[in-house]
């Protein structure tokens, strides 16, 4: 495939991931060759975007067909998108899908701009190059010049360089909106678009600010989480790690904004984002607080305030969308984290899990989710939870459109069947570009994991 290479990781992290995907249980089940092949496909597909953009529609405000029509009109009129296909998801009633065009045959130019790996990943999702993301550009680059944009995978390019021969990947062509001197020699803080992408490797519809109260950009597995939690009008729900509030808002919408959704996050300015998103989507049942959820449960007599900490058994349902190593995110061309950083999440997730179980009422539902692919943060956490909390049992999930849980953590086949792991590597096939969008969507997602528990 033209353009992007495999997901670039520190060698120790690649080896760690390989040991997960080639674990003993997996090798016994599928054999060495198939396990290795799946692992290689995983590394490749993580560096490419899914073949569609997923938006969650505000069906608590307006019927889906009307949102689909409005979105169509809006993209055609204000964004001047000539033809746009918008398809409702066949099983999820509040999801619209828009195909991404790519990888497109784009010819490389002689003038090169180099950006950081994070910026490069954003370009694959349809962004333009913001000036602070530019690391190198031609010596005499001026406004209006046509340039090819490359992503520096290993962070080796020197800021201000005029060229770069290291490990880089082509992400498309654009037009400079700033001179080189403005980018590298200005005293003022750099702002704004430095290169406008006119011929990106992947073309997705420009979404920023489109129908803000009616459509919300969200990965398909993240939308599935809200449905699996199954919130009902009038209930009291806790979202323990909520910012920026995508799932919080979905939960409130599924409850028709009746009841209470308590959203906690440890980072203050991120909590503000939850409030902004709730306001934009006209949701009043959300109460957001800045708080460390590890300490969100207290045996002290209840305070008069409505915020945390809360007495045990305060909530009908709890969502623990845990902070995680994020290795399922797509497209992601490079991750510079050390193995120590990747492995640091399991203990934190367990502390959060303890609080989650205590805060949940008996008969209540706990959903645990991550956007990563490791066993340590997914199936191993489930095995640990089932042995640590005898009151918990695994529950079937609806909808269940992803794969089963992965072998390797000692869970039974029956238990694995109750888990939902989105595994893009299982259906990744670079030759099958003609398969209709609707047959591809459920397999072509970010890497994601969902477990649903009942507290007995
Ligand atoms: C995976 S993100 C959540 C995404 C969010 N659920 C959504 O759908 O928009 C994890 C969040 O957990 C927050 N976080 C990390 N540790 C936390 C803690 N101890 N207590 C509360 N929030 C925490 C992070 O700030 C981050 O916003």
The H-level CATH homologous superfamily of the domain at 112-200, spelled out, is PUA domain
What is the level 1 CATH name of the domain at 112-200?
Mainly Beta
Q: Which range best describes the helical content: under 10%, 10-25%, 25-40%, 40-55%, 55-70% or over 70%?
A: 25-40%
**CATH topological fold name of the domain at 112-200:** Archaeosine Trna-guanine Transglycosylase, Chain: A, domain 4
Overall pLDDT score: 94
Bound molecules: S-adenosylmethionine
Poorly predicted regions = none
- Cα end-to-end separation: 50 Å
What is the correct CATH architecture of the domain at 112-200? Roll
Query: How many DSSP E strands?
Result: 18
Broad structural category:
alpha/beta
- Shape label: globular
Give the DSSP E fraction (strand runs of 2 or more residues): 15-25%
How many helical stretches? 14
Active site: 371
Pfam family, one: Methyltr_RsmB-F
Keywords: Methyltransferase, RNA-binding, S-adenosyl-L-methionine, Transferase
Family: Belongs to the class I-like SAM-binding methyltransferase superfamily. RsmB/NOP family.
């Amino acid at each position: 495939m033209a353009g992007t290479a495999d997901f670039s990781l520190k060698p120790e992290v690649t080896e760690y991931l390989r040991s997960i995907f080639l674990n003993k249980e997996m090798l016994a089940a599928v054999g060495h060759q198939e396990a290795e092949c799946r692992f290689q496909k995983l590394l490749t597909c993580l560096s490419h975007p899914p073949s569609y953009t997923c938006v969650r529609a505000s069906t608590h405000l307006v019927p889906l067909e009307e949102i689909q029509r409005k979105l169509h009109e809006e993209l055609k009129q204000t964004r001047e998108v000539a033809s746009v296909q918008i398809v409702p998801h066949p099983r999820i009633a509040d999801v619209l899908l828009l195909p991404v065009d790519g990888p497109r045959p784009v010819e490389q130019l002689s003038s090169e701009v180099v950006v950081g790996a994070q910026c490069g990943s954003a370009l694959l999702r349809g962004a333009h190059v913001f000036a602070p993301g530019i690391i190198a550009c031609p010596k005499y680059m001026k406004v209006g010049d046509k340039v090819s944009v490359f992503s520096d995978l290993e962070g080796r390019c020197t800021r201000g360089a005029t060229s770069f021969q290291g490990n880089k990947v082509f992400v498309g062509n654009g037009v400079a909106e700033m001179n080189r001197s403005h980018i590298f020699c200005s005293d003022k803080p750099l702002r704004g678009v430095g290169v406008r992408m006119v011929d990106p490797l992947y073309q997705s519809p420009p979404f920023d600010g489109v129908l803000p109260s009616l459509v919300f950009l969200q990965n398909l597995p993240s939308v599935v989480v809200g449905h699996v939690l199954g919130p009902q009008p009038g209930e009291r729900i806790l979202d323990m790690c909520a910012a920026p509030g995508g799932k919080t808002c979905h939960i409130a919408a599924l409850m028709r904004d009746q009841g209470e959704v308590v959203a906690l996050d440890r980072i203050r300015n991120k909590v503000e984002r939850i409030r902004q998103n709730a306001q934009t989507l006209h949701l009043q049942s959300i109460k957001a607080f800045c708080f460390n959820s590890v300490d969100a449960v207290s045996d002290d007599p209840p305070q008069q305030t409505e915020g945390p900490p809360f007495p045990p058994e305060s909530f009908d349902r709890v969502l623990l969308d845990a902070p995680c190593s994020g290795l399922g995110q797509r497209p992601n061309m490079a991750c510079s984290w050390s193995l120590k950083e990747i492995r640091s999440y399991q203990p934190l997730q367990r502390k959060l899990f303890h609080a989650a179980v205590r805060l949940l009422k008996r008969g209540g539902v706990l959903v645990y989710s991550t956007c990563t692919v490791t066993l340590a943060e997914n199936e191993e956490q489930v095995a640990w939870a089932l042995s640590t909390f005898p009151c918990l049992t695994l529950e079937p999930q609806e909808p269940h459109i992803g794969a089963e849980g992965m072998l390797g953590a000692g869970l039974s086949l029956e238990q694995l069947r109750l888990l939902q792991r989105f595994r893009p590597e299982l259906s990744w096939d670079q030759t099958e570009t003609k398969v209709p969008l609707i047959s591809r969507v459920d397999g072509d997602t970010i890497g994601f994991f969902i477990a649903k528990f009942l507290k007995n």
